[in-house]
Every structure is written in C-alpha cells, then in structure tokens.
Automatic annotation (TrEMBL):
This is N-acyl homoserine lactonase AiiB. Residues 129-346 form the Metallo-beta-lactamase domain. It comes from Hypericibacter terrae. Residues 16-28 have a biased composition (Basic and acidic residues). GO terms for molecular function: hydrolase activity; metal ion binding. The lineage of its organism: Bacteria, Pseudomonadati, Pseudomonadota, Alphaproteobacteria, Rhodospirillales. Residues 1-74 are annotated as: Disordered.
Amino acid sequence: MKIIEFGKDGGSSKSTARDRPERMKILEFGDGVRGARPPSGSKIEVRPASTAPQAETKWEPVPAPASSAGLAAVPKTKASRSPFVGSRSLKMHVLDLGKLRLDKNFMVANSTVAMAKNPNPPGKLIDIPVSAYYIEHPDGNVLFDTGCHPDWAGPNGRWPQNLQDVFPVIGPDDCYLPHRLEAMGIGPNQIRHVVLSHLHCDHAGCIEFFRKSNIVVHEDEFAAAATHYAKRDHSTPYALRDVETWIRLDLNWREVGRAEPDRNLVDGVKLLNLGAGHSFGMLGMMVSLRDHANVILASDACYTAENYGPPMKPAGISYDSIGAARTIQRIRSMAEANHAEVWFGHDIPQFESLRKASEGWYE
Ligand SMILES: [Zn+2]
Ligand SMILES: [Zn+2]
C-alpha cells in the first residue's frame, strides 16, 4: 500500500504534490498482508476454499470526521486478479436498505417536460429502493453494495446538505446494512469480498465496517472519488466524509483495471467490468443460481426497467451518457446469452417483487 500525503494544511486544492514537495509523504507497506501492493505482474493470492471465515466481530461504527477540511491522505490501490473454481452451491439474500425520496427526473431524464399548454407541470417525487445483495458461498461470502451510511443526516451527517435535501433516505433506523446483516446473524468479518458497483453515497455508505474484507472497486471509480475528495468537491454523489473515513482506515482495496475482462470472483459469481457510464467506473455481477434464472445485478448501470427499454431511456444522472447506453446494450446481450434476469439498481415494482432476506433467499 502506498500512501501519498499532501496539502497537510487542508488548504487550497491548488496545492499539489509537485508544487509543494516538502508536503509530500510516501509510505510503502510491503508485508504481504492487508493492503499490500504485490510485485508488478504478480497475482494476489486468494485464500483456499477450505479457509474458515474469521471469527465474527461486532459492527463497530467509526466516529464521523470532524469536518471535511482536513482531508489528507489518498491511498492508491491494486487489483486482485485471482479467479478460482469452487462449489456452485450458493444462496443470494436480497437486502432492503430503505428508500431514497427524489424527483423522478433523476431516474428517467425528461420525465417532466414543460409545454406551452402546460408551462409549469408538477414534478414527480418518488421513493426508490436502496439495496444490497449478500451471497453465501462456500469459497467466501460476497456482498454487492452497502447502501447508505446510517449517519447520513443532520448538520454533522456524512452527506453534505445538498445531498440530504435532494435524496433524503426514507426508512426505519434498522434499514441500514449493519442492522440487516446483524439480524441475519452475520458479522462484518464473515464477508470475504465486498463488491462496490460504484462509490456513490447510496451504494458505498457502509464500506468502512468491512475492515478485513477485500473491497473490490473499479480503478476509475476509486480515482474519481479520490479526486473529488482532494478537490473538496461536495457537489457530486460522493459523500466526502465517507471517503475520509475509508482513507483513515486503510481498507483492503482491490481495484479492477479498466481493461480487465469479466471474471469469476468465486464460482458462480462473475464480476462484470462495466466501465464508464452512470459513473466513472461501474461494476456489475452475474450470479448463477440453481433454482432460479441467472441474475445480473446491474446497479445504477441501469436504474429501472423504464431505462432498460427497449427503447432505452437515458437517466437523469450520467457521467458518460454514451457509455451508459453502451453498457445497457451490453447488459442486454449478456442477459440474452446467459438466460439471465436483470435486476435494476432502483426499480420500485421489481424490487417489491423480490424475495427479501427476511422471507428467504435465492439459490
Ligand atoms: Zn449512482
Ligand atoms: Zn444509486
């Protein structure tokens, strides 16, 4: 793990490492354990299938950073590249992590259009589901996405005020990921891989609880979150106080490179490198099930069935709209080739129709 530290005064984002070499500090850790960078071209070892999960620990909250002003160290990450074959007996649990209340135009662009005969149409406020997927697997349990941080709200909340206003979370106190997994008797150390579809605040809010897991993220997404953090740019869906906490904890990041092919994370669970579209670097997952159609977890690469079409409809939030359209085409081709269902990121009727973890699972 290499940490580059700069701008210790927490001041201007114009202060770069090159401008102020005296402020740059590089730390190298090469102990071959957590967060270590392997020699170039080497493969990171994945524990064998027989490795028992580590003892369960409690869900430890992390105190919120005092402010985002003192943002300092940005860790660089490295990809894990170790596909391996194991058992295909897996169970997928659908976790209901509450809802976001927002204007429908964010989901489907131009849902509300003013016209001469209707110059001020009312906006449409909708409650969209927030979800995560827990896969019990003999070769290591996998979590796809983590929802919002429980302390997202308030003046000292993780989210900046603009996000709190535009996308408030609607849900009971127990709708957040730690509560949901705890109710299933699962501790954070029982999750081997935490796959982040991307790092927006409604998907990456609970990363910090998984201090022993591999945190799998697209390299371009990690770079984007780190860049917004370094610039103190609070205008995006990255919650910089969440980012600050990840950095302080030195988590066990595993990047997926831009050019890396799709590959099995564990047998029956394929990591999909979806690239730029909704955000800078999207990951999806395809899960092979014995008693159900295969499932593609699309996350925000496709918000809803309405976006999926055909015809496709663009989302209201897109980093790369052409990439987003291409990604939906690619997901459609994969779904057809693999007889897979596509589970969208925030589709209200589809999510209501799914069996939730409190009711059972998919296998
Ligand atoms: Zn998003
Ligand atoms: Zn989302």
